[in-house]
Amino acid sequence: MPVIGISTIDDHDAAGMHAPRFSLNQSYAKAVEAAGGIPILIPQIEDAGSLRRIYDMLDGIMLPGGLDVHPKYYGQEPHPALDPTDVGLDFVETTMLPWALEEDLPVLGICRGEQVLNVVMGGTLIQDIYTQYPTTIDHRESFKRRVRDYLAHDIAIDPDSRLRSLAGEDRIWVNTSHHQAIDRVAPGLVATAWSPDGIIEAVEAPEHRFLMAVQCHPEEMWRKHPWARRLFKTFVEAAAAMQSPGRISTYHPVTALGAAGE
Fold this sequence. Notes:
By secondary structure, the chain is α/β, with parallel strands linked by helices. The chain has one domain: 3-Layer(aba) Sandwich (Rossmann fold). It is built from 9 helices and 13 strands. It has helices at residues 26-34, 48-55, 87-103, 112-120, 129-132, 141-145, 162-167, 226-240, 253-260; strands spanning 3-7, 9-11, 21-23, 38-42, 60-63, 107-110, 125-126, 153-157, 171-174, 181-182, 190-194, 200-204, 211-214. The chain has a 9-stranded mixed sheet with strand order 4-1-5-6-13-12-11-8-9, sandwiched between helices. Helix 2 crosses helix 3. The longest helix is centred in the middle third of the chain and has 17 residues, at 87-103. Mean pLDDT is 91; it is low at 254-262.
């Protein structure tokens, strides 16, 4: 069974105890487990060498939802409507993702995960949809309703995309809980789905073994919606292929640690 690493958020008020914790919604791990993977939670370690030891145990990486990506990673100043950021999560994901991209390790991004993937690969973000983009859609509707699997709007899918082959149709309904979105798509990624207002709802990299991200939350939908189950199943199957004895690491400790300290 392939091991899937999932990054965690910095939760300063877990269980109302005001005790800092690293946490993750259970739905992410349960979706991976149901698809045949072994979920491993990645704490917010501050040392690149230690993160590399964890990375080398993984067959795939899932980037979950969370707080905003700090705009310094895509060369912008914070917008007044920027939500709180998570310094530790930014470090973990921006450190590990380049390794995964170089070694073609399967990656699945969800919500913030789509955004950070785009940023690491050289794209930019809309920092706040409601003040920087013309829309009549409430992209936080599922969150506001406190129904995480509430289907708030439909998305149109590129008929030639991998997502279309998993979805089985050109248009599906999804849940939504975000105020940021992709602006300029990164080199190496292609947009594959859009909400009715034109917001990018999915990206993928055709040249990679499995490199996909969606703006919705399929981890809350897989029990009811076959396309979401297929998404996780295909991701985990791609990760299983990394268990081959032929996998070769291209990691160079001195280079990686030096880059992390810049």
